[in-house]
Amino acid sequence: MHFLRNLIILFLICIAIKINLCVPTIPSSLKTLPIDGHFDFKQVHHAAKDFGNRYSFLPSAVLHPKSASDIATTVKHIWEMGPGSHLTVAARGHGHSLQGQAQAHRGVVINMESLQGPKMKVHTGNFPYVDVSGSELWINILHETLKHGLAPKSWTDYLHLTVGGTLSNAGISGQAFRHGPQISNVHQLEVVTGKGEVVNCSEKQNSDLFYSVLGGLGQFGIITQARISLEPAPKMVKWIRVLYTDFATFAKDQEMLISGESTFDYIEGFVIINRTGLVNNWRSSFNSNDSAQASHFKSDGRTLFCLELAKYFNPEEMAIVNQEIMTSLSQLNHIPSTLFQSQVPYIEFLDRVHISEIKLRSKGLWEVPHPWLNLLIPRSNIHIFAQQVFGNILTNTSNGPILIYPVNKSKWDNRTSVVLPEEDVFYLVAFLSSAAPSSTGSDGLEHILNQNKRILELCQIDGLAVKQYLPHYSTNGEWRSHFGPQWEAFVHRKSTYDPLAILAPGQRIFQKAAPLSL
Ligand code: FAD
Q: How far apart are CA 63 and CA 9, in angstroms?
C-alpha cells in the first residue's frame, strides 16, 4: 500500500517537473458516453479565452453538462483510461481567470454554465444558508437570497464570477477582515474528484477533501454544489472615502479599523499616483455627494492613499448609524477636507464593478490584456513594500486601480489549501492593470509585465515573505517555493483525489498536456 502511494507521489512529481511524455488525442469513446448533455468538438475556441486575454490553449472538446453525473461520467471515463491517455479536464466557470487557469490544452473543458443542478434553495432560520450550483454566478445568488431578506456574508469586488471559480481561490473583498474570505463561509460541498467519484464533504464528512478543495486551485475536484452561509441583508449602504498623503497614517488607520468589531462592514483602500482626478477606471462608479470643500481638493500629482469604507444600514436605523459613523471617522487621521460620502442601495454597492464593466465594454476596453498581479504581504513588510513600489517602481496609476487593504488571518481556516503569509495581519495588494492592445508605451503589455517583474524581484531580494494570490508560476521550483512547507501536503492530497493529475491543467502545477514553454 505504502509502495503504491509512493509510486503515485513519484509519478505526480514527475508530472510536476514537466516530463511531457506524449501528445494527447481525444478518443472517439467520448462521443458514446451516456450523458444528458453533449460534447462539442468543433465550437471550442471560446474555451481557449479568458479575462486575462494573454493565454490561449485550444481544447479538443467542450463538455456542456446537464448534471453532476455528466461530469462524473466524463472524468471517470478519462480516469479509467489510465496514465497513458494524457487527457486533462478543466472546469470553466465564467472564464475570468487571468493566465489560462480554466483552459485545457488539447483536453476537455467543462462549460460549467450549462450545468443544471437542483434549483437554488434558500434556507431561512437562525443559521440561514443557501444551496447553490458550483456554476452559479454570485450576482444570481445575491438576487435570489435578497428575496428572503438575506445575503452571503463575504464577497468579491465583482459578482459575475462563479462559486466554483472563487472557492477554488479564496474570494476576498472588503468584508474579509470580519467574516474571512468566501472559503470561510461554506458549510458543505458536492465535488467530483479526479477519479470521477461524486462526494459530499463538509467539516464533519470527508473533511480532508472539503478543506483540500477550498482554495485548492481546482486540483482536487470539481465543485458541483455548495452550501453558503447567509446573514440578514441590509437595504442601504453608506459608502465613504477619505484620503491620506502619508502611507504610515493610512495603514495605521486601516489596521485600527479591522481590529475593531463595531466599525464598518467593508474596509478596502487604493493608491492614487500622479493623477489629477481622484478616482480612475472602475472605481469611478463611486458617485459621491462631495462637500464643497472636498470637491476643491486637488491631488496635484501627489501619491494619495484612499481609504474606502462602507456601513450597512436599514432606513429606520439612519440616525444611530450616522452617529456611529461620526464616532468611527473621528478616530481617523485622514486629510480633513477629503471626506467623500455617498448612500446607495446594498445591491448597487455590491454590484459596483459591473457598472464600470458596462462602460468599459461600450468603449471596447473590457476585452484587452489584463496583466494583473495580486500579492498577500505580511504587515511587518508592508511599509517597505509601499515605499519601494508606490511612486518609485510605479510612477502613475493610469493603467488601472491598485487596491490595498489588510485582513485578519484569524478569519481564515488553516486546514484549507490556500497559501498565506505567516503573520496575523496581512495585506492584499492588487495591481489591476489593463494593457492598451498593441501599444509599446507605458500603457502597453510589455511595460506592465516588466513592472510586475520588478515588483516580484523586489519582494524576492528584500525577503518580504510575500505570497501570490491567484498564483501563477511556470516552473516546479516556483510552485514548491510558493507552497513552502505546505507543498508535501498539497502533493499528497493530489495523490489521493486526482492521482492521474487530470484536473485543472491550466494552473500548470501538475502538467500533463500543456506545452513545455510558452
Ligand atoms: P474560472 O476562471 O472559470 O476558473 C478559475 C479556476 O477555478 C480554474 O482553475 C478552473 O478550472 C477552476 N474552476 C472553475 N470552476 C470550478 C468548479 N466548479 N470547481 C472546481 N474548480 C473550478 N477575486 C477575489 O478574490 N476578489 C475580488 O475582488 C476579485 N475581483 C475580480 C474582478 C474581476 C473583474 C475579475 C475578472 C476577477 C476578480 N477576481 C477576484 C478573481 C476571480 O476570483 C478569479 O479570477 C476566479 O477564478 C474567476 O472565477 P470564474 O468563475 O470565472 O472561474
A: 29
pLDDT at residue 467 is higher than 50:
yes
454: alpha, beta or left, given left = phi > 0 and alpha = psi -120 to 50?
alpha
Measured distance CA(136)–CA(120) in Å, rounded: 9
pLDDT in tens, 317-338: 999 999 999 999 999 999 999 9
Give whole-number Cα distances, 394 to 132, 137, 428, 509, in Å.
41, 34, 17, 30
Q: Of all protein residues, whose CA lies closest to atom 7 belonging to ligand 1?
A: 165
Residue nearest to atom 8 of ligand 1 (CA): 102
Secondary structure of 232-246 in the HEC alphabet? ECCCEEEEEEEEECC
CA–chain centroid gap for 197, Å, is 26
Ligand 1 centroid to Cα of residue 115, in Å, is: 17
Distance CA 286, CA 514 (A): 42
Q: What SS3 state is found at 47? A: helix
Higher per-residue confidence, 302 vs 470 = 470
HSE (CB half, 13 Å, CA atoms) of 174? 25
C-alpha pair distances (Å), 26 with each of 31, 85, 89, 112, 180: 10, 9, 12, 20, 42
Q: What is the pTM of this model?
A: 0.93
160 is catalytic: no
What are the pLDDT digits (tens) for 354-403? 999 999 999 999 999 999 999 999 999 999 999 999 988 998 888 999 99
